[in-house]
């Protein structure tokens, strides 16, 4: 009964601000199709075909710039609008009594974490049945240093003055070795070397989750642009860059995932799915431009709930899979110039985050 009373008291508008400019709106279908597709397809194309292959440093920049874009999208372009929608005064007092957007995002984040735990446990069992002992979860030695002094004495007595580097590796188990489960198994455009199945399954899972979260958001972006009023021009311009940057982040992840020969069409389908989602949504929005009420109670709640879910997905993926695993659990930044390279990657990621967050001022 309480839920009914909440909806009974809503005062949300049932129209939209559509004010013509049909030519420009139709053009947005094709312009955003081009920019979205470019962002999603270009990293894949450059990794497959040598005649358009970019220098390694450009891919490095695109990879970490895209990570920053995804993190900013989660907080600025999803969680904040979701909270604004689900706490709208027109929905009634019941919706303002609790921060539903944050709760849904939090629930999604923990659900995704639990789902990944279960998925990797199933993967481990599958590998064990195939005679492979490797575990995604690793063993205690990866994370815990055991009685270093006693191990040091034992190593010294057993090996005398053997190579100090090998002793150090045994004394301090490589915390970053966990990265092998998550890092790209190949430099872009080079043959895969010793890829294990768990790594492939893990990367595949992460890419599909990322695609799922981004596509949710893209649907409502397209519908909103189609029926926007006075803000259409500024929203149009901002969404061109928004979709291209977001596509770049997704496309880079797809390109750096190892795809076996029997799945060679999967990355292209994922990129096409992203590239087509917003343009199709714009076209649908234009088709119902006279009747679609973007600010009605049902539309506001639906948009808010799905943005909350997407934010939880992208927060988890962005911080755990993209930031933590690539910086803390990566072998990429080891070596003489590793720290400088890591700082550069962090700086590039901050630029991606900053620019995408800035776009949140208009969209």
Describe the structure.
- The chain has helices spanning 2-8, 22-48, 56-86, 100-129, 140-143, 148-159, 164-171, 197-226, 232-255, 266-287, 297-328, 338-359.
- It is an all-alpha fold.
- The protein has a domain at 25-113 and 200-359.
- The longest helix has 32 residues, at 297-328.
- It is globular and about 60 Å long.
- 36% of the residues are buried.
- Residues 1-8, 137-154 and 164-195 have low confidence and may be disordered.
What is the terminal-to-terminal distance? 36 Å
Task: Return residue spans where pLDDT drops below 50 for at least 5 consecutive residues.
Answer: 1-8, 137-154, 164-195
The total of helices stands at 12
N-to-C SSE series?
HHHHHHHHHHHH
The major β-sheet equals: none
What is the β-strand count?
0
Shape: globular
Structural class: mainly alpha
Radius of gyration: 24 Å
**Amount of beta strand:** under 5%
Amount of helix? 55-70%
Overall residue-averaged pLDDT value: 78
């Amino acid at each position: 009964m309480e839920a009914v009373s909440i909806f009974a008291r809503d005062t949300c508008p049932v129209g939209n601000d559509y004010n013509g400019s049909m030519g420009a709106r139709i053009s947005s279908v094709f312009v955003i199709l081009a920019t979205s597709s470019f962002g999603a397809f270009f990293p894949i194309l450059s990794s497959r075909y040598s005649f358009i292959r970019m220098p390694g440093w450009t891919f490095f920049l695109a990879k970490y710039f895209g990570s920053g874009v995804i993190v900013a999208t989660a907080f600025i372009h999803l969680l904040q609008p979701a909270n604004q929608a689900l706490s709208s005064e027109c929905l009634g007092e019941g919706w303002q009594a609790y921060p539903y957007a944050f709760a849904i995002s939090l629930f999604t984040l923990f659900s995704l974490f639990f789902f990944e735990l279960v998925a990797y446990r199933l993967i481990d069992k599958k590998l064990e049945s195939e005679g492979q002992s490797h575990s995604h979860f690793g063993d205690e030695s990866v994370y815990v240093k055991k009685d270093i002094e006693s191990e040091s004495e034992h190593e010294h007595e057993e090996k005398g003055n053997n190579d100090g580097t090998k002793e150090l590796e045994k004394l301090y188990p490589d915390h970053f070795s966990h990265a092998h489960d998550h890092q790209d198994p190949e430099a872009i455009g080079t043959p895969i070397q010793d890829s294990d199945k768990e790594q492939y399954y893990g990367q595949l899972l992460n890419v599909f989750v990322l695609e799922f979260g981004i596509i949710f958001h893209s649907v409502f972006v397209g519908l909103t642009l189609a029926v926007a009023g006075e803000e259409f021009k500024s929203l149009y311009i901002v969404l061109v860059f928004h979709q291209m940057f977001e596509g770049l982040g997704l496309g880079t992840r797809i390109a750096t995932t190892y795809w076996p020969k029997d799945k060679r069409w999967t990355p292209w389908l994922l990129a096409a799915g992203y590239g087509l989602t917003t343009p199709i949504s714009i076209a649908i929005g234009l088709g119902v431009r006279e009747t679609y009420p973007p600010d009605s109670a049902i539309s506001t709640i639906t948009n808010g709930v799905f943005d909350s879910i997407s934010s939880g997905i992208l927060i988890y993926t962005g911080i755990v899979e993209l930031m933590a695993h690539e910086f803390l659990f990566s072998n990429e930044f080891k070596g003489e110039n590793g720290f400088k390279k890591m700082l550069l990657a962090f700086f590039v990621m901050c630029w991606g985050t900053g620019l995408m967050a800035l776009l949140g001022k208009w969209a």
